[in-house]
């Protein structure tokens, strides 16, 4: 730059003529047009088709029955995820154990609870009393200290949380195990060489770094559990879906009430998506050279919210004058 | 940092006696015996796969051994002696406790990626030795100053060059006040222009009387700093002695071959006058 290039000084070629232009991409225009037409058709039918009964949707959207169902759904989702994460972490550690029987038990758990459909698991837990009328705590093969009547203990809520939580634990176990294995072995070696115990190494060195790998799929699992919780309507649990079903079985306004449920599921999923974005940014810190958290890539909703300026608008700067 | 080792010492600081180690059917160490007195620098040289790294990892019990015994400061590291004279592996907790006196520096640095430089250095002192956080921080700052990185406390490992990361790793190991430092090819993963800064730190450490066992391909460093050079090949010690002897006048044909192959690859590598056959 200090020695000016004489060729740039020649006024013969104007700056505009020296601009480097991007390739023409007619396919983009066609694709954009197709998508916009389809979107317009969809918007049109939402407005024009009277069967949507938007006024009914609006009427029931905020009713206390629907809101209490929503609360139940969120409650079941949160508790099931907590059960899933805690139990999943335990099973992940079991599967990584060097003791064959312990590792085998972890494997068997994942095998069974991942293989049986969630709906079937929910029904089995709900009907546990038929299998074990009395639940007791005591010495194995010895006397028992505490008896509980299974019919009383396994309420629909308990069955729902057990079914969803234990099912989720199998998936979380695999996610957490993958996360732990994804942390370079050198990290735990360095920790152990410093005299850190295995527990301390896992807690302070491995898990914090595994989180970066564990959080994104856990977000998916939370959404999947939220949606899976609609299955508990078969246990007559007044969750979001069951609540709208109560209404439309009475009023026969099936579609608008299902729309109420759809919209609420959309809202909760969106909130979860935003939360996941910030959580990922937090655990991703230390992973970028700038030192601040790396922006997680491909986080659908948020990337939609943050449309970047199109790249075609930028042209190459010509020289520095 | 000065080491508070009593000047009068009966045995060696590190003693490796007839150690055998196999990974499945492959015997990596086949009866290795060596010792390092307090304050001595021992350089392990040899082709890759010769057992240098494995030997270092056995010394702080990152690998268990199949036979023989290893003591540091007169004590067995990963084992205790049973009444019948055989060795029994200690519990992980006991091993962890014994490792605190042995510092280790890895080829790939292995800094904790989620922690800052300062947090990397104070993690083990505060969590394992239960040093007060303030005290640990002050000590860490002094150590980081010493390796020339006092201004990088809040950086994360990824923001540092390889040479800087390795210097932090050395500071992190020193923060536990080890009596012995093990270096596993500490400069092999570095760009050539960054090797010097790490070797300088190690040179300083040796000058202060730290007992060091260093697996390395830096013949110049070995020549200049080592009290003892040990040439390993195929899991046995082929030749050992003062650097002038092993590096300049090797007695064994295999040693000469190895040194020649090294000097072919890196001509003019430091002060080494590798003898060509």
Structure characterization notes:
The complex is a heterodimer of chains A (about 325) and B (about 280). Chain A has about 325 residues and is mostly helical. Chain A contains 14 helices and 2 strands, in the order αααααααββααααααα. In chain A, strands 1-2 form a two-stranded antiparallel sheet. In chain A, helix 3 packs across helix 13, helix 11 packs antiparallel against helix 13 and helix 12 runs antiparallel to helix 13. The longest helix of chain A has about 30 residues. The radius of gyration of chain A is 28 Å and the shape is flat. Chain A starts with 5 loop residues before the first helix and ends in a 16-residue tail after the last helix. The C terminus of chain A is likely disordered. By secondary structure, chain B is an alpha/beta fold. Chain B has 9 helices and 12 strands. In chain B, the strands form 3 sheets. In chain B, strands 8-9-10-3-11-12 form a 6-stranded mixed β-sheet, with helices on both faces. Chain B has a 4-stranded antiparallel β-sheet with strand order 2-1-4-5, covered by helices on one side. Chain B has a two-stranded antiparallel sheet with strand order 6-7. In chain B, a hairpin with a 5-residue loop joins strand 6 and strand 7. The radius of gyration of chain B is 19 Å and the shape is globular. The N terminus and C terminus of chain B are likely disordered. Chains A and B meet through helix 10 and helix 11 of A and helix 2, strand 8, helix 3 and helix 5 of B.
Provide a brief overview of the structure.
Chain A has 321 residues and is mostly helical.
């Amino acid at each position: 730059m200090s020695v000016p290039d004489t060729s740039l000084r020649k006024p013969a070629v104007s700056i505009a003529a020296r601009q480097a232009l991007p390739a023409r991409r007619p396919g983009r225009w066609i694709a954009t047009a197709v998508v916009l037409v389809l979107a317009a058709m969809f918007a049109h039918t939402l407005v024009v088709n009277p069967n949507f009964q938007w006024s009914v949707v609006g009427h029931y959207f905020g009713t206390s029955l629907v809101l209490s169902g929503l609360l139940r759904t969120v409650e079941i989702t949160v508790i099931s995820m907590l059960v899933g994460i805690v139990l999943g972490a335990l099973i992940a550690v079991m599967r990584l154990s060097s003791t064959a029987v312990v590792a085998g038990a972890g494997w068997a758990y994942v095998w069974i609870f991942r293989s049986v459909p969630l709906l079937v698991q929910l029904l089995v837990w709900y009907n546990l009393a038929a299998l074990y009328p009395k639940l007791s705590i005591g010495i194995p093969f010895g006397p028992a200290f505490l008896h509980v009547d299974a019919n009383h203990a396994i309420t629909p809520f308990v069955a729902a949380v057990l079914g969803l939580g234990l099912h989720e634990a199998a998936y979380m176990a695999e996610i957490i195990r993958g996360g732990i294995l994804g942390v370079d072995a050198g990290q735990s070696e360095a920790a152990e060489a410093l005299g850190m115990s295995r527990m301390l190494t896992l807690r302070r060195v491995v898990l914090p770094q595994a989180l970066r790998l564990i959080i994104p799929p856990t977000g998916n699992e939370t959404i999947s559990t939220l949606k899976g919780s609609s299955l508990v309507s078969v246990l007559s649990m007044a969750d979001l879906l069951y609540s709208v079903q109560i209404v439309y079985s009475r009023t026969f306004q099936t579609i608008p009430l299902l729309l109420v449920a759809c919209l609420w599921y959309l809202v909760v999923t969106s909130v979860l998506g935003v939360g996941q974005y910030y959580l990922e940014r937090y655990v991703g810190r230390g992973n970028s050279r700038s030192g601040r958290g790396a922006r997680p890539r491909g986080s659908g909703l948020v990337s939609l919210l943050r449309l970047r300026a199109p790249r075609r608008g930028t042209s190459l700067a010509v020289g520095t004058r | 940092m000065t080491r508070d080792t009593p000047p009068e010492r009966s045995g060696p600081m590190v003693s490796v006696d007839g150690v055998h180690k196999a990974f499945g059917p492959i015997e990596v160490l086949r009866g290795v015996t060596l010792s390092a007195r307090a304050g001595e620098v021992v350089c392990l040289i040899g082709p890759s796969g010769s057992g240098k790294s494995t030997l270092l990892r056995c010394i702080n019990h990152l690998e268990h051994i199949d036979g023989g015994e290893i003591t540091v400061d007169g004590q067995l590291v990963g084992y205790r002696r049973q009444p019948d004279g055989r060795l029994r592996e200690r519990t992980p907790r006991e091993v962890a406790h014994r490792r605190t006196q042995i510092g280790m520096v890895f080829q790939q640095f292995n800094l904790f990626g989620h922690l800052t430089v300062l947090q990397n250095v104070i993690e083990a002192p505060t969590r394992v030795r239960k040093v007060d956080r303030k005290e640990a921080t002050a000590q860490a700052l002094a150590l980081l100053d010493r390796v020339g990185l006092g201004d990088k406390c809040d950086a994360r490992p990824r923001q540092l060059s390889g040479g800087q990361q390795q210097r932090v790793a050395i500071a992190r190991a020193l923060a536990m006040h080890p009596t012995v430092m093990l270096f596993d090819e500490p400069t092999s993963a570095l760009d050539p222009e960054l090797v010097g800064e790490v070797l300088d730190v190690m040179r300083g450490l040796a000058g202060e009387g730290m007992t060091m066992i260093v697996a390395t391909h830096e013949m110049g460093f070995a020549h200049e700093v080592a009290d003892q050079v040990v040439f390993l090949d195929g899991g046995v010690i082929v030749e050992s002695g003062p650097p002038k002897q092993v590096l300049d006048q090797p007695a064994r044909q295999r040693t000469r071959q190895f040194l020649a192959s090294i000097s072919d690859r890196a001509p003019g590598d430091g002060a080494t006058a590798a003898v060509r056959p």
